[in-house]
């Protein structure tokens, strides 16, 4: 019996993935130039992206023996010999992928087909549209036999008339409890496939942290439009990409966005449509939910003529009513964990503010757990890498004697410092630079490693080697890794555990559902280094 790991792709590297170790090798030298080009293109898999995650899942479904057989025969890369162009097939869905597609195995058991908007236990009709290594992608044509079980399909849950057309949501027909459980499995699968850690080193994945709201939660929306062709006779489409296509679909309302955003979207759409023929190129609209500016919250009278880029709101709508900001340079204000945060509308900030209190509290609880009992460590310092405008560092500052944050965006650092002053937090310092810059210079000389927590919240690509090497060299007592991509998170954590020769162990792993109705899942993992009790007393 072949080992599944022998058939799997290699560990995704930073910042670029090497081509998979197991490649198709045509034995007869007869492969056409066209197929060679197709195979070369399919070899280029984005590290930690949907196709790499799906490929691991596909290999698991087919089994290592079957994968090795297909690879040896040179049949693992191109599915064009299996299906005619746009062929319709019937398929029984076995599992959901980490990115929302239903996965089924063809009758001969040699190929997997992925199709959107379907659930395990359903039989579907699908149209095959493109091929990847060991699997093909298809459009859903019809659900022949729906899954009507307790956690199965229920169309009454769907709140968007464009569901299955827009690429924004994947799970509106699913029960929310089922969505949370699936995302727990996504995190579990990510660590099984990407961390390269043995199962005994990976703790049980905790239940997914739920969002308080399943609709009307999204606090940022970016609809877009393309250049208006003079010969175009229909209304200019403003909205989002069609599912599986690079084509816009006109969408006038998004049910996962807040009411404030949708109200502003109606007004902004009208402005764009009125000038549709004047646009020489496409553009993206920014709609950002915000608390009112502090000056107005203090009690401006009458109808407030807001600053440039802010949608006007009358006093009758209550002085604390949220507003929608449409200028990327304009200020946005949010209140998280009892603290005010201000930042430019165009900069990064989490887009589901409703869950952020519980997310911050969860991280705080994990740190409290590590500091309690006889074996607890005394954590006095926090390093907040990739700190943005200071969300985690400032929200957790009361747990520590001192906080040091680093962020590559100097504009975000300016707001992190501003937010510290705004909230009367005097124990936080912020530095502009690459994440690894925090370990250079004199800033951390007073930070005893056995008393320090490092919190990292990197972009989707994860951390690069330079940062991880310096992190290990600094040797903090605790590492908290928050990520919007659980696959690169698992890869990086596996690197830290293995590179440290298991001096770091994983204390806890949990998903957080910042984006209900979609496949996106945030991950929160806590690592603890072995430490002598009382070493930092």
TrEMBL record:
One of its GO terms (molecular function) is tRNA (uracil(54)-C5)-methyltransferase activity, S-adenosyl methionine-dependent. SUPFAM superfamilies: Nucleic acid-binding proteins, S-adenosyl-L-methionine-dependent methyltransferases. Residues 82-142 form the TRAM domain. Pfam families: tRNA_U5-meth_tr (PF05958). S-adenosyl-L-methionine binds at residues 350, 386, 407, 457. Gene3D superfamilies: 2.40.50.1070, Nucleic acid-binding proteins, Vaccinia Virus protein VP39. Keywords: Methyltransferase, S-adenosyl-L-methionine, Transferase. Residues 1-49, 294-322 are annotated as: Disordered. The active site is at 484, 484 (nucleophile). One of its GO terms (biological process) is methylation. The keyword Transcription regulation does not apply. It comes from the Eukaryota. This is TRAM domain-containing protein. It comes from Mixia osmundae (strain CBS 9802 / IAM 14324 / JCM 22182 / KY 12970). The gene is Mo02619.
């Amino acid at each position: 019996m072949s080992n599944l790991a022998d058939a799997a792709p290699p560990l995704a590297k930073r910042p670029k993935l090497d081509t998979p170790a197991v490649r198709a090798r045509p034995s007869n030298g007869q492969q056409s130039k066209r197929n060679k080009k197709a195979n070369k293109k399919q070899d280029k898999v984005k590290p930690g992206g949907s196709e790499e995650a799906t490929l691991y899942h596909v290999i698991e479904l087919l089994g290592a023996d079957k994968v090795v057989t297909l690879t040896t025969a040179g049949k693992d890369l191109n599915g064009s010999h299996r299906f005619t162009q746009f062929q319709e097939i019937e398929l029984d869905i076995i599992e959901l992928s980490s990115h929302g597609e239903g996965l089924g195995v063809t009758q001969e058991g040699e190929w997997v087909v992925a199709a959107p908007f379907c659930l395990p236990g359903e039989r579907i009709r699908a149209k095959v549209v493109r091929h990847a290594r060991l699997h093909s992608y298809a459009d859903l044509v019809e659900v022949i036999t729906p899954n009507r079980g307790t956690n199965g399909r229920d169309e009454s849950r769907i709140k968007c008339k464009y569901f299955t057309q827009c690429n924004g949501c994947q799970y509106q027909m699913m029960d929310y409890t089922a969505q949370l459980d699936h995302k727990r499995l996504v995190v579990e699968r990510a660590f099984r496939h990407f961390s390269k850690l043995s199962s005994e080193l990976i703790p049980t994945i905790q239940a997914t942290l739920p969002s308080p709201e399943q609709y009307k939660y999204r606090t940022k929306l970016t609809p877009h439009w393309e250049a208006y062709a003079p010969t175009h006779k229909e209304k200019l489409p403003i909205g989002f990409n069609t599912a599986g296509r690079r084509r816009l679909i006109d969408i006038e309302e998004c049910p996962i966005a807040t009411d404030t955003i949708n109200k502003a979207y109606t007004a902004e759409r009208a402005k764009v449509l009125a000038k549709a023929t004047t646009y020489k190129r496409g553009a993206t609209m920014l709609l950002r939910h915000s608390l009112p500016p502090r000056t107005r919250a203090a009690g401006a009278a009458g109808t407030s003529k807001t600053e440039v880029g802010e949608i006007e709101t009358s006093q009758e709508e209550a002085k604390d009513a949220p507003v929608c900001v449409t200028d990327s340079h304009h200020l946005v204000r949010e209140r998280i964990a009892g603290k005010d945060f201000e930042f430019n509308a165009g900069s990064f900030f989490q887009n589901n503010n409703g869950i952020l209190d519980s997310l911050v509290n969860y991280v705080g609880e994990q740190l409290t757990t590590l500091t309690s009992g006889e074996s607890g460590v005394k954590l006095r310092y926090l390093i907040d890498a990739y700190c943005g405008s200071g969300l985690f560092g400032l929200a957790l500052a009361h747990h520590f004697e001192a906080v040091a944050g680093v962020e590559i965006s100097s504009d975000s650092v300016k707001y992190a410092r501003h937010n510290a002053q705004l909230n009367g937090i005097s124990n936080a310092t912020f530095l502009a630079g690459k994440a690894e810059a925090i370990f250079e210079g004199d800033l951390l000389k007073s930070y005893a490693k056995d008393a320090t927590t490092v919190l990292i919240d990197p972009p989707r690509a994860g951390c690069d080697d330079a940062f991880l090497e310096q992190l290990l060299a600094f040797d903090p007592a605790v590492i908290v890794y928050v990520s919007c991509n659980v696959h690169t998170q698992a890869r990086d954590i596996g690197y830290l555990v293995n590179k440290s020769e298991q001096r770091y162990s994983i204390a806890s792993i949990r998903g957080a559902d910042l984006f209900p109705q979609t496949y996106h899942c945030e991950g929160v993992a806590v690592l603890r280094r072995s430490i002598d009790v009382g070493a930092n007393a």
